[in-house]
Amino acid sequence: MQLKLEVVNLIVPEGCNIILGQSHFIKTVEDLYEAMMNSTPNVKFGLAFCESSGPCLIRHDGNDEELRKVAIENALKLSAGHCFIIVMRNAYPINVLDRVKAVPEVVNIYCATANPVQVIIGETEQGRAILGVVDGAKSKGVEGDREIEERKQFLRKIGYKR
Question: Taking the model in full, what pTM does it have?
C-alpha cells in the first residue's frame, strides 16, 4: 500500500473567512445551510461537501453564487473524505461556529480563518483524507506590553469587547 502526500492551497477571497471541517452524511449540506442562515442575518456564503460514498459528488449550497463557486472549487481541489468547506463574507467564524459545530453530522473542524490555508492531503488506493492544515504563518515571537494593549484595543474597536 502506498501513501501519496499533497499540499492543497485553498482559495480565501479578499474579505472572506473559511471554515473547513469533516462531516458524515449527505444531509450535511442542508443542515449547514440552515445553521449559517440562522446564525447571523447579514452573512453571505457558499458551502460545498465532498460526498465519499455512492456517487461521490460535490454537494453544494449557499446564498451567494460567487462564494458557492469558490467553495466548489476548493472542494474539488480537496476531494477528500466527507470534508466540507464554508466560504463566508459579512461575518466572522466566531459568529457561526457554535451553530456549525451543533450540526449533528459535523465530526471535526480543521480550521476557521481568513488566513492563507494549506491543507495536507494523504491519498491511498481507497481515497483521500485531510491529515492537517497550515493556517497562516509561523509564530515570530511573544507579545509584549505594547502588543497586549494593541490586541485589547482591536477587540474593542471591532465590538467584541467593551
Answer: 0.93
